[in-house]
# Entry
Amino acid sequence: MADGCNLYFTEKDLVDVEKSIENQKVIDERKFAGNALACLLKKDPDKFIDVLWNHKDPKHVIVQNLLVKSLSHNQLIEQDEWKLSKALNTVLNIQKDPQGLFVKPPAYRGAGSSSMQHGAELLTTAAIVQQSVYSTSGKKLYIDKITDTIGFGQKLPAKYTLSKRIEADTVIARDTNIFGGYDLIGIDTKYSKSSSTYGIKDREHFDRQMEGVRHNFRDGNLQEFFFVSNVKFSSDFKKGIQDYNIKIFNDMMRNDSSLRKEAGKHLHPQEAKNYIPQEYGKIDFYKDRMAFEHTIKNCPSVPQIELCENVNFKT
# Structure
């Protein structure tokens, strides 16, 4: 029914969908709920947006329940589950057809791409639409209604081939107004349901993702990348990110002679005194992290992996 998009935005149709799930007539209720929502959104996006906003409409509760089944499955705390309808309304009000919301993005967006898997991705995106946020280093993360296009669940090449890819929960394509060009900003949501901090869960997965971001920066496929969490990041997560930011900085230094000269101007006096641009590799930023932070702050052209903490959608 939903796959063929034969569903209409009537209370009867919505009740039928809800009963099918309640009576266990579907094998995968999460997929079924997502397909139903995709169908409703495709048929009448304006009506969909109105129902999301109007809590007095009897259809609102059914749509909210479908959102919980599709995007939560106990992955969100109850308070955040009830934010889903307003969060989706916030996103759809600036873009009615974001790719990857309930249906996986088209193949040209990357083999293995999938539709949104976790409601926290929606909450994060809506929070950034609601209000710009700043990373721990002071980098601004925002979504602009005029210049930006939002997509979910898209894959980015991890190295030199398309066979290895990393996923960005949210991708923002920002029109640069230069001969049809655009910048890509990747966002990865790290949601904690119970802990006050978010740490590295799987080191192998973490390293694989970080290497992917590193290569995307180096190859120019990605201009910005942010990890965004509803809580603070743990010290091991922050250290892991800084380790890769040093690698990214060294990659850029290796390929940019003007950056090597510029970086020398921002070293601490002790390092600057003996600094030779061609021998930049002799500076061990892993041992002197304060020197790295000081230098990178004055080299804004070098992309870095950013961290945004305590980002929560407000109702």
User: Anything to note?
Assistant: The CA atoms of residues 160 and 267 lie 33 Å apart. The chain has two domains: 1-97, 104-315. Residues 1-97 form one domain. Residues 235-255 form the longest helix (21 residues).
